[in-house]
Design brief:
Elements (H helix, E strand, L loop, with lengths): L2 H12 L15 E9 L2 E8 L4 E2 L4 E10 H5 L10 H11 L15 H16 L6 E8 L4 E11 L2 E5 L6 E2 L5 H11 L5
Helix pairs in contact: 1-3, 3-4
Length: 190
């Protein structure tokens, strides 16, 4: 995150911050859980905490999406959306917000947490076309997951699969492992 943006957020936090929030048209609340590289592009991956559902079988179903970081970095945070992205992120930080990804990261400092809060706000409102969307089902007790639906877009070409894959174990140090740890071990689902 650039120094100018950090200064704007700091000023907002020192002054009074409006408690209004950007309307989330779809009722989603995207939370950062990982980073990936797809076709040479760095993507930030988010899960919808509001849409995560735990069934009677204790399995968790959750939508995820990955957005090109360059698209997120291209948003003028001070001008677009009336500056609400920065204001909302500053408000979160004033209220001691800790991004869920802190559960799987060591040494998450205030600057990084603030940057993640900004990315989450962008994911909520900016309408950036995801490079990939995956609807996961997690079996927390067996430490397994499967994809129920996948939609991918690369270089203007898209593909999808809307049938459940086989269950598979989650390799360590992957986005799947981070997602599982956030959703299963720490039970952030309400």
């Amino acid at each position: 995150m650039n120094v100018k943006l950090m200064a704007v957020i700091a000023l907002l936090m020192v002054g009074s911050v409006a408690s209004s929030t950007v309307a989330k048209a779809s009722g989603t609340d995207w939370k950062l859980y990982g980073v990936t590289t797809i076709d040479g592009n760095t993507d930030l991956c988010f899960f919808d905490i509001k849409g995560a559902v735990q069934g009677t079988d204790k399995h968790i179903k959750v939508w995820t999406k990955c957005l090109h970081k360059k698209d997120m970095d291209g948003i003028d945070l001070e001008k677009e959306f009336g500056g609400k992205i920065v204001k909302n992120a500053a408000d979160k930080m004033l209220n001691r917000y800790v991004p869920p990804i802190a559960l799987v990261m060591e040494d998450l400092d205030f600057d990084k947490a603030t940057e993640f809060a900004v990315f989450e706000e962008i994911a909520d409102v900016a309408g950036i076309q995801p490079s990939i969307r995956i609807f996961f089902e997690l079996d927390c007790s067996k430490e397994m997951l499967r994809e129920l639906s996948i939609e991918v877009e690369v270089h203007g070409r898209s593909g999808s699969k809307h049938s459940a894959s086989e269950w598979h174990y989650v390799p360590p140090e992957t986005n799947g492992a981070r997602l599982q740890k956030i959703l299963c071990e720490k039970s952030v689902i309400r």
